[in-house]
Amino acid sequence: MTPSRRTTGTDPFDPVPADRFTFGLWTVGNPGRDPFGAPVRARLSPARIVEKLAECGAMGVNLHDEDLVPFGSSAAQRDALVREFKRALADHGMVVPMATTNLFSHPVFKDGAFSANDPQVRAFALRKTLDAIDLGVELGATTYVFWGGREGSEADACRDPRLALQRLRDALDFLCGYVQDQGYDLRFALEAKPNEPRGDIYLPTTGHMLHFISTLQHADMVGVNPEVAHETMAGLSFAHGVAQAMEAGKLYHIDLNAQRIGRYDQDLRFGSEDVRQAFLLVRLLEGTLGGARYEGPRHFDAHAYRTEDEQGVWEFARGCMRTYKILHARAVAFDADPEVRALTAELSDRELDPLLAGFAREKVAKLRAAQIDVDAVAQRGLGYERLDQLMLEHLLGVRGA
Prior knowledge:
By secondary structure, the protein is of the alpha/beta class. It is built from 15 helices and ten strands.
């Protein structure tokens, strides 16, 4: 069967598969249930989600194990569901770049999964993840995400947090070993979050995750999957966290959405809150300011408003992708603006520059002898007010293409 794709017009912001946009089955498939109310939309089948995302211009779809195979399914049921899903992927020209395991919904994980005090829970979590890794690889995934939604506590006296970290390390070392033993082409991406559903979650930020990865036996195959909402919940700059991951060569995947500071995890449509931060993030990922470009999928981990019917869900999906492309175009224009280039040009000093890159004993005396007029430097304006205004004008569409 010929893959079905929505025919795009002349609008340059219409998404196409080459943009590498992806959504999770759990995102557009969210029925609109919240802690205070029942679902407002009928559940969509995985095949329907694949079909409609293809029409919207997405490249692929990602999933938790239970998004496709409900908990407790028999082997025969599992195989039938996987066959149907693979047929839908082939029919619509879609791929599965990433998979993950649901280690948070079932009551057995109420005290955590890999970090739980009960060894039976830890063993079950490990076994469930092994099966889910097999599923992800069967579907073509090359990245496997770990979000420890229940890996935390409300009553901190329940365990030594150092023991929790050791248990998490043991689990990841085991799973890395399994992937290598099976010969899978798969790498892991760890996803941080400060709180919710637990009162405090272990390894709450991307920076925490990056250090933790350095303690693993197979650190080379483990990176991070930062999420806009998770860093923003704590009032942090998401772009800075992503930049640190990119600089370390550890940005293996990314979750895009929107969030208001200090709120619960909202998973709003990408760019619908704090457009400035969304712009700076896209500018960073696309490399328009001169750095290396992120080459992985642009994954949207977001949900349509509870007010929407199914048509509203697909408007939401298109909105996520269109906003990203619009911001990309704005970033290109901003960084090509001659006035912006002048204000962001790197300063150079032929005498000082050689002293600032790497220690050498002979540099110490030269550095101490260097003539630096501290008062004159302190009085020099940097033009950042103008730079920030230029960014705003580009975002508002009154400057640049």
